UniProtKB/TrEMBL annotation:
Native organism taxonomy: Bacteria, Pseudomonadati, Pseudomonadota, Alphaproteobacteria, Hyphomicrobiales
GO-annotated cellular components: cytoplasm
SUPFAM superfamilies assigned to the protein according to its UniProt record, in alphabetical order: GST C-terminal domain-like, Thioredoxin-like
Domain (GST N-terminal) ranges: 8-84
Name by which UniProt lists this protein: Glutathione S-transferase family protein
GO terms classed as biological process: glutathione metabolic process
InterPro entries associated with the record: Glutathione-S-Trfase_C_sf, Glutathione_S-Trfase_N, GST_Omega/HSP26, GST_UstS-like_C, Thioredoxin-like_sf
Superkingdom per UniProt: Bacteria
PANTHER family named in the record: GLUTATHIONE S-TRANSFERASE OMEGA, PTHR43968
Native source species: Hoeflea prorocentri
Length: 230
């Protein structure tokens, strides 16, 4: 069976940037599965697989179509139990639910504003128009105003990463000696920033930087298949 991953891209279809899609890329690599990648711009997301979801990633595996990165990871562990586990059991699923909520509120929400104009610049004009209208309606202000207010918020990131930093003093991955889907959740957000913007979020001597570099090297260096923004 052919596996197809629908993932978000901008003008350059070789630079997929969605944090949620990167979770799935890492999950597929973790499982050692081969797949085809289908580039989807913002305005085409509603047309993917007859509108199965409002967002990507979407995964088609033969007759099975699954949306949402977490649901895709659960599906992969169920469909391919003979391959390396993404969760290590129900405890790992519960851990990953917490990591997803923590990273969304403490990491993604902290850096989102700083990336808006960089993301906008990566898109085709029709997608730029959609992105600006939808984000400005959600945020209640212009992209420029949000980005202008973001530097102070980004400075908060170092402290917000303290729980991860302290844990990484004891083990190389969130999953322990080896990565699990919980690692890929956090990785996806930092990879999103790495691909979209040259902004420096982490210091070179940070425990989190060392962990992120280890994640970039995983699975044949799939995380490095897209260069960092210049």
């Amino acid at each position: 069976m052919t596996i197809t991953l629908y993932e978000l891209t901008g003008r350059d279809t070789e630079r997929p940037f969605s944090p949620h899609c990167w979770k799935t890329v890492m999950a597929l690599a973790h499982k050692g599965l081969t797949y085809e990648r289908s580039a989807v711009p913002f305005t085409e997301v509603p047309n993917v697989e007859n509108g199965i979801g409002k967002t990507v990633p979407v995964l088609r595996d033969g007759e099975h179509v699954v949306s949402d990165s977490f649901d895709i990871a659960l599906y992969l562990d169920e469909a391919y139990p003979d391959r390396p586990t993404l969760f290590g059991g129900e405890g790992g699923v519960a851990l990953s639910r917490f990591i997803e909520a923590w990273s969304a509120t403490q990491i993604s929400a902290t850096i989102f504003g700083a990336l808006l104009l960089d993301i906008h610049s990566m898109l085709e004009p029709v997608d730029q128009d959609y992105f600006r209208r939808s984000r400005e309606a959600r945020l209640g202000k212009s992209l420029e105003d949000v980005v202008g207010a973001s530097p102070d918020k980004v400075k908060e990131l170092a402290n917000r990463l303290d729980p991860l930093r302290l844990m990484l003093k004891r083990q190389p991955f969130i999953g322990g000696d080896q990565p699990l889907f919980a690692d890929y959740i956090v990785f996806g957000i930092l990879q999103w920033a790495r691909i979209c913007s040259p902004i420096q979020l982490l210091q070179p001597d940070d425990q989190v930087t060392a962990w992120f570099e280890r994640c970039l090297d995983l699975h044949g260096g799939v995380g490095r298949s897209v260069a960092a923004a210049a």
